[in-house]
Design goal:
Elements (H helix, E strand, L loop, with lengths): L2 H11 L2 H4 L2 H7 L17 E2 L13 E7 L11 E3 L2 E5 L6 E5 L5 E6 L21 E3 L2 E5 L4 E6 L5 E6 L14 E3 L2 E4 L11 E6 L5 E6 L4 H4 L7 E2 L2 E2 L26 E3 L4 E5 L20 E5 L6 E6 L14 E8 L2 E9 L4 E6 L5 E6 L7 E4 L11 E3 L5 H4 L5 E4 L13 E3 L4 E7 L1 E7 L13 E7 L8 E7 L4 E8 L8 E3 L3 E5 L4 E6 L5 E6 L9 E5 L2 E8 L7 H5 L10 H4 L12 E6 L3
Protein name: XoxF
Cofactor: Ca(2+); pyrroloquinoline quinone
Organism: Methylorubrum extorquens (strain ATCC 14718 / DSM 1338 / JCM 2805 / NCIMB 9133 / AM1) (Methylobacterium extorquens)
Length: 599
């Protein structure tokens, strides 16, 4: 990883402002604080802190706790800027500023007034994946799609702007990406037939700069038919329109509610698009481009450099929104700029992030069965495409037919819970779901603001496995192989954190914070927090002492039954029945737990 070297070079040349947000870039180099949910622009979720290490982590103790005052699913993590910690909540998206110098006293509290009618429109719980800090401002993208800039010292609103319309099903669950003088944001709502987009706003004023749609006409997608490429070739005119029937692209999905990465050297940012609408594949023949795809775009103009569609004509709701982790590693003896992506569809992809060439595409859970492999033979007519197994094709089996035993389930081998990368081990640490499903599509009619799903699902632990619903794995992205795997009773829905102390942290749905050895996966420490953990583990220092923090608060798609009080096994898009046993291990909560070594 060369970000420190790159920063020094930029400062020497006096060009930082032109290439990245100087304030954000500088602060992401300082492991004592955290200003982005992803820790750095490369999305590595790696901390250089090593005071807590593999030898002493067993001595961790709870240092302090904080109640958020909100129930439902707590995703994302706090930020720490200097001596202030910023904590966010699910709907109504309260933000707290806590004084670390004064017993975590609340310095200010921002509580937006949002219309509660947005709650039932949020597909899979009222989660929010957190804040970002840039140039003295805290940036929040609310559930109702209001984007807000808050003065980091006072909590006063600098500006706010509406990014979408909840009345047609547009909501937000994601964090934001501050790049240069812009704030880049996505949108949720593919289950309501919205048309996904990425939008850039001026960081100082909130004025909209550009918007790029996931599907539709070239000019609205901000693609160039001759210069934007896919698998090395120009995408050509109307590349999206040609893969939809009639005007179906107008309700085509492709939401953008995941994580965003940025490469200052290439000046490209990366993200994934979600499922096409509806979930019934029979109703939307064609590849449905560019849903289920990875985009590389220029942050100044929004123009797409390259696109790669992972799951053409999705038949299983395998959203492609999971994080893109940027690393510089050797492939066949030559150093290359890489992008590693653990997709919902069960394949882990390693791409050259400069040009979008696919180098590796392998299953990161052996039970994945909907496709036999991804064809990486450049001479093949199926180059870059997954080879679908007919038995598990919900399209080939048809409407009102229950296709059984599909692995993974719709929530994927990994959902939004972000993986981490350690430059010390050259391994990726991945929280996974070990879950399969039955899937029955049915005809559905589009009505603005109403669910546009068209499938009934049931989920269950992968048959023939260890009996649990999750694994925490270490992955080699060059060989495409699992190095070690720790079984878990439930899906691992928490984001991982890798550290220079040779420790990897993650949380479990029952509520444990766990620490494992980065080389072997051996469990070194665990502590049961107040509620299920679907937040992302973070670390910081204060007055020279390292702390580890995590939000507890069960929910998200996996915990939606508990979070929303649902009992019908098919509710929560199939998750309620699959995770019914979770209620025996944890309950609702909203708490930050902070750990440290004893004095």
């Amino acid at each position: 990883m060369r970000q420190a070297h790159l920063l020094g070079l930029m400062l020497a040349l006096g060009t930082t402002g032109a290439l990245a947000n100087e304030d954000v870039l500088k602060r992401t180099q300082d492991p004592n604080q955290q200003v982005l949910q992803t820790l750095d622009y490369a999305n590595t979720r790696y901390s250089k802190l090593d005071q807590i290490n593999a030898s002493n982590v067993k001595n961790l103790q709870v240092a302090w706790t904080f109640s958020t005052g909100v129930l439902r699913g707590h995703e994302g993590s706090p930020l720490v800027v200097g001596d202030i910690m910023y904590v966010h909540t699910p709907f109504p998206n309260i933000v707290y500023a806590l004084d670390l110098n004064n017993d975590s006293k609340i310095l200010w509290k921002y509580e937006p007034k949002q219309d509660p009618s947005v709650i039932p429109v949020m597909c899979c719980d009222t989660v929010n994946r957190g804040l970002a800090y840039a140039d003295g401002a805290i940036i929040l993208h609310q559930a109702d799609t209001t984007l807000v800039s808050l003065d980091a010292k006072t909590g006063k609103v600098n500006w706010s702007v509406k990014n979408g319309d909840s009345k047609v099903g547009e909501t937000n669950t994601a964090t934001v990406l501050p790049v240069k003088d812009k704030i880049i944001v996505g949108i949720s709502g593919a289950e309501y037939g919205i048309r996904g987009h990425m939008t850039a706003y001026d960081a100082k004023t909130g004025k909209r700069v550009w918007r790029a749609y996931s599907v539709g006409p070239d000019d609205e997608m901000l693609v160039d038919p001759e210069k934007t490429t896919s698998l090395g070739k120009p995408i050509g005119k109307d590349s999206s329109l040609k893969t939809w029937e009639g005007d179906q692209w107008k309700t085509g999905g492709g939401a953008t509610w995941g994580w965003y990465s940025y490469d200052p050297k290439l000046d490209l940012f990366y993200y994934g698009t979600a499922n096409p609408s509806t979930w019934n594949p029979k109703q939307r023949p064609g590849d449905n481009k560019w849903t289920m795809a990875i985009f590389a775009r220029n942050p100044d103009t929004g123009q797409a450099k390259w696109i790669y569609q992972m799951t053409p004509h999705d038949e299983w709701d395998y959203d492609g929104i999971n994080e893109m982790i940027l690393t510089d590693q050797k492939v066949d003896g030559k150093e290359r700029p890489l992008l590693t992506h653990f997709d919902r569809n069960g394949f882990a992809y390693t791409l050259d992030r400069a040009n979008g060439e696919v180098l590796v595409a392998e299953k990161f859970d052996p039970v994945v069965n909907w496709a036999s492999k991804v064809d990486l033979d450049k001479g093949s007519k199926n180059y870059g495409r997954p080879l679908v197994v007919s038995k598990y094709s919900t399209d080939q089996n048809g409407e009102d037919v229950n296709s059984k035993g599909i692995c993974p389930a719709a929530l994927g081998t990994k959902d939004q819970q972000p993986a981490a990368f350690s430059p010390k081990t050259q391994l990726f640490y991945v929280p996974t779901n070990h879950v399969c499903m039955d899937y029955e599509p049915f005809k559905v009619t589009y009505t603005p603001g109403q669910p546009y799903v068209g499938a009934t699902l049931s989920m269950y632990p992968a048959p023939g496995g260890h009996g649990g619903m999750g694994n925490f794995i270490a992955w080699d992205n060059i060989s495409g192989k699992i190095k070690w795997s720790n079984p878990e009773q439930f899906s691992v829905w928490s984001g991982a954190l890798a550290t220079a102390g040779d420790v990897v942290f993650y949380g479990t749905l029952e509520g444990y914070l766990k620490a494992v050895d980065s080389k072997t996966g051996k469990e070194l420490y665990k502590f049961k927090t107040a509620s299920g953990v679907i937040g992302n583990v973070m670390t910081y220092t204060h007055k020279g002492k390292q702390y580890v923090g995590v939000l507890s608060g069960v929910g998200g798609w996996a915990g939606i039954g508990l979070a929303a009080g649902l009992t019908d096994p098919n509710a929560g898009l199939g998750a309620v029945g699959g995770y019914a046993a979770l209620s025996q291990y944890t309950n609702l909560g909203g708490q930050l737990t902070v750990f440290a070594l004893p004095n």
